[in-house]
Amino acid sequence: MQLIVAGASGYLASEVIRQALSHPKITSVIALARRKVEAPTGTDGSKLKSVIVKDYDFYGEDVKNELGEAGACIWTVAVTPSKSKSMDFDTVRKVCLEDTMLGLKTISEARREGVESLRFVYVSGAAAERDQSKKPSWMPEYSLMRGETENRILDFAKNHNISPCIVKPGLITNGGILKGAFAMVMKWTGMVGSVSIQDIAAVMLEDVVQGINVETLENEDL
């Protein structure tokens, strides 16, 4: 299986790539990012192809051609809660929602003959609220937008032969060290718990390799 990892230069994506390159059932990894991505030390670099985009709102024909054989994608592109505080919300929405939907549409349409179903794993967050009639107590605009993104992915998947999975982690840890701005992230996740970066990467890879059976994975499922 060929796997696309979008946002490949990021924190979580780097661990996904490290494990994917060692997975016997993953034949190649397309590392989609805005800069060149190198294979982690000790992994099989021959399985990695770094594909560079200027941004996630445009895909040239050369990039689309690299995506056509993929049977799965793990999408990690987003603006974190802490970073969103210093950005215009329209920009945050563009990156988290609009660019995600364009990426999903582009990958879906790029599929070549013989590549039928696409497994699409989207990394969201524990506090993302799908019920748009609610008002979350903290960062309501951000949390509702992330929930809207989840809804849009699930709706798109129904009509495009895509098997989706929304992953909703709490705090992602690495050897006991919390990543990011502690107070901001802890509030946004609602203190729902944590998951190690190694565990969440492994669960997502098993989903794309073995097949997606559950559309939503909460933090406790990871």
From TrEMBL:
InterPro entries per the UniProt record, alphabetical: NAD(P)-bd_dom, NAD(P)-bd_dom_sf
Superkingdom of this protein's organism: Eukaryota
Ranges where the NAD(P)-binding domain occurs: 7-206
Protein name, UniProt field: NAD(P)-binding domain-containing protein
Organism: Venturia effusa
